[in-house]
Amino acid sequence: MDPECFIPSFSESKLTDSFDLASKLSVQRAMSPLPLIWKLKRLLNIGSEKKLKEAIRVVDNVVMEMIGQRRREMATMTAGLNKSDLLSRFMGSIEDDKYLRDIVISFLSMNWLRIN
């Protein structure tokens, strides 16, 4: 999913790179013949589990940044109320930013699965 449907001026490379990495590492984890290995890596915060944790953190932070930016825009100008992008529409009915973040990431996941 193009992040521009949420915020038209958003540069997507940081988000898409981290999202792609997190998705690929999650698939590798699911295909691991021995779950004990990835669980141990996660416990020790090493290797692919360390990369996965960092990629998820970046995705969460970037999406929360997008949400915060839009909330500030909507609070400071009445023009923000007229925006018709997807993020603005969700923000009109959802006040919990973490829940909104999860919705945005779900939309990104659906699109990633569709194109990969």
TrEMBL record:
Gene Ontology terms, MF aspect? heme binding; iron ion binding; monooxygenase activity; oxidoreductase activity, acting on paired donors, with incorporation or reduction of molecular oxygen
- Protein name, entry field: Uncharacterized protein
Would you identify the family this protein belongs to, as annotated?
Belongs to the cytochrome P450 family.
Q: Recite the UniProt keywords alphabetically.
A: Heme, Iron, Metal-binding, Monooxygenase, Oxidoreductase
Q: Which Gene3D superfamilies is this protein grouped with?
A: Cytochrome P450
Needed cofactors, names only, are:
heme
Organism of derivation:
Arachis hypogaea
